[in-house]
Amino acid sequence: MKKIITILQARYSSTRLPGKVLFPILGQPMLIQQINRIKNSTLHGQIVIATSTHYEDEKIVNCCKENGITYYCGKLDDVLDRFYQAASLYQPDHIVRLTGDCPLIDPQIIDEVIQTHLDGNFDYTTNALKPTYPDGLDVEIFKFSALKKAWIEATLNSDREHVTPYIYRNNDQFNIGHFYNDIDLSHLRWTVDWQIDFDLIKRIFENLFPYNPRFTFSDILQFIESNPELKTINTCHTRNEGLQKSLQEDQLISRA
Q1: Which domains does the chain have, with CATH numbers?
Q2: Taking the model in full, what pTM does it have?
Q3: Which SUPFAM superfamilies does the record cross-reference, listed alphabetically (predicted)?
Q4: Percentage, residues of the chain above pLDDT 70
Q5: What b-and-e string marks burial along 226-242, b requiring 16 or more CB atoms within 10 Å of the CB?
Q6: Cα 23 to chain centroid, rounded
């Protein structure tokens, strides 16, 4: 049986919406709401919050302590090192990577991406490189050996900050797997970078959670379809804005 752990990266000092991971949703920090959804997955293994040693992230540490959540504190900007050091404590075969700005993450999608990865014996598998799911349902899983190689060899700031670009950019060195939805819903935005994003997520929780704490991807879609104004309420923001900015700074893509 292969050992899997899930590392969820989170920091308090978001540049666009500081403190967002601890914003309250139905009386719980957003981070805890997300962790509770991850726990409904059957394949996720140990969950570890990877935060930083920055003084502001002590708030995240305290939240983890209060809720019995395992955590690791590493470098603020070198998130690749943070992941490697956190993973090294557990010596897993595979690591699931999630980010703390995606509280609607779906446990079934997590399991399906993990199973695709294991069945295909891929080095790295995701549903996000060629996205067909709403932004905010991104799942990545990679072998510890792939993470270690990236940790040793990656030098660009964008590779160190965003953890996995070195792996999927060097697809001649790594066997890459993809997972797709049946229909393309990548135009929908369910991640939290801005206040308007959080307002949408909070509204979804408030309308679905009281009736079914394990509400699914399909339940959210049905709610959105019943409230069509929500489809485009936050689509003025583009997918992966932070990554795109880092790639521009490293001159891997041109500025618009």
Answers
A1: 4-249 (3.90.550.10)
A2: 0.92
A3: Nucleotide-diphospho-sugar transferases
A4: 93
A5: eeeebeeebeeeebbeb
A6: 17
